[in-house]
Amino acid sequence: MSMLRIEKLTISRGERILATDLNFQVKPGEALVAEGPNGSGKTTLLRTLATLSPPLRGTIYWQDHALSDITEVYRSKMLFLGHTPAVKLDLTPEENLKVYARLAGAVTEPSAALECLGIRRYAATLCRHLSAGQLRRVALARLILTAAPLWILDEPFTALDRQTIDGLSSLLEEHLAEGGSAIITTHQQLSLGRASVARLPLGTG
Ligand SMILES: Nc1ncnc2c1ncn2[C@@H]1O[C@H](COP(=O)(O)OP(=O)(O)OP(=O)(O)O)[C@@H](O)[C@H]1O
Question: Comparing C-alpha atoms, which of 159, 173, 165 is closest to residue 189?
Answer without folding.
Answer: 165
